[in-house]
Amino acid sequence: MHSFGRQLAALPRSRYGPWAVIAAGETQTATAFARHIAANGINVVLAAHGGRADAYTLAVTSGVSVRTTSPDVFTGELAAATDDIDVGLLVCITDEDSGSSRFGEPVLNRMRTLYLTHRFGHRIADRGQGGVIMVRSLATQRISHHTQPRGADSMFTAGIRDDLDKQGVEVALLDDYVPHRPAMDADDLALMALARLGRRRHRHCTHQRDQTDRRTVRDAN
Question: Sorting pLDDT into bands at 50, 70 and 90, what band is 131?
Answer without folding.
Answer: very high
